[in-house]
Design brief:
Number of strands: 9
Shape: globular
Bound molecules: S-adenosyl-L-homocysteine
Number of domains: 1
CATH topology: Rossmann fold
CATH class: Alpha Beta
Helix content: 25-40%
CATH architecture: 3-Layer(aba) Sandwich
Structural class: alpha/beta
Number of helices: 6
Radius of gyration: 16 Å
Distance between the termini: 41 Å
C-alpha cells in the first residue's frame, strides 16, 4: 500500500467506520516518518509495527478508532493528554484534532526521539515529556480528554481520573489479561465515570502500575 489516502480507504471499507474528521487528520500524517527504516515499505499497511526499545507503533485502525472515540463530544479548542508516546504517531494525528496535545513516554530514548521527530515535522502543538504516565501531567491539567495507548490493568490510575475535567473523557484499553477492553469513561459532576465498552484490543503493557 503506497500512501495514507489508500490506507484510509481500506480502513473505511473494511471496518465501515464513519470517522471523517479522523480520516482527514490521518491522511495528513506521514506514517513512514514514524516507523523504523526497515519497515517503511509497510508504513501504510494497517498493521502495528515494531519501533525501538521493543515497543510498537499502534495499528492505524486502532489509532483511528481511539481518536474517533476521543473526539466525540470534545472540541477543536480542547487539550488532551496521551499516555504512551511511542513513535509520536498517535500524538501527530491528535494534533490536527485538538488545540494542544501533551504526551508522556516512560522510555527516555523513545521520548527524546519522538520529540525530535515531531519538531522536524514541524508539529508545534505537541508537548512530549519523559515520565511515568500513571501520574499524569498535573501542571498542564485539567484535560478535556486522556488517551492511554498501553494496556492497563484495572483500575485506571487515579491521577488520570483526577486530571480530566467534568464532561471530559478517558479512552483506555483496560483488563486483567492480554485481552483489553476499549473503554470510554466520561467524567460526571459527581466525580464518578460513565463507562462504555468498545470491544477487545491488544497493546504493549503499561509499565509499573502500582
Ligand atoms: N502511541 C504510540 C504507540 C504506543 S506503544 C504511537 O503512536 O507510536 C505504548 C507506549 O507506551 C510504549 O512506547 C511504552 O514505552 C509506553 N508506556 C508503557 N507504560 C507507560 C507508562 N507507565 N507511562 C508512559 N508511557 C508508558
Amino acid at each position: 500500500m503506497s500512501d495514507s489516502a489508500e490506507m484510509i480507504r481500506q480502513i473505511r471499507k473494511y471496518y465501515r467506520l464513519n470517522a471523517l474528521a479522523v480520516f482527514s487528520a490521518m491522511k495528513k500524517v506521514p506514517r513512514e516518518k514514524f516507523v523504523l527504516p526497515s519497515y517503511v515499505h509497510l508504513a501504510y499497511s494497517d498493521n502495528a509495527l515494531p519501533i525501538a526499545c521493543g515497543q510498537t507503533i499502534s495499528q492505524p485502525y486502532t489509532v483511528c478508532f481511539m481518536s474517533h472515540l476521543l473526539i466525540s463530544g470534545l472540541k477543536k479548542r480542547d487539550k488532551v493528554l496521551e499516555i504512551g508516546t511511542g513513535s509520536g504517531y498517535q500524538a501527530a494525528v491528535l494534533s490536527y484534532l485538538f488545540k494542544e496535545v501533551y504526551t508522556i513516554e516512560i522510555i527516555g530514548r523513545l521520548a527524546k526521539e519522538a520529540r525530535k521527530r515531531l519538531k522536524r515535522l514541524d508539529y508545534k502543538n505537541i508537548f512530549v515529556r519523559k515520565g511515568n504516565g500513571e501520574f499524569g501531567w498535573e501542571e498542564a491539567s485539567p484535560f478535556d480528554g486522556v488517551i492511554v495507548t498501553a494496556g492497563l490493568y484495572n483500575p485506571v490510575p487515579i491521577a488520570l481520573r483526577e486530571q480530566v475535567r467534568v464532561g471530559g473523557r478517558i479512552i483506555a484499553p483496560v483488563g486483567e489479561g492480554e485481552d483489553k477492553v476499549m473503554l470510554r469513561l466520561t467524567k460526571l459532576k459527581s466525580g464518578e465515570f460513565r463507562k462504555e465498552k468498545f470491544g477487545i484490543f491488544h497493546f504493549v503493557p503499561f509499565v509499573k502500575q502500582s
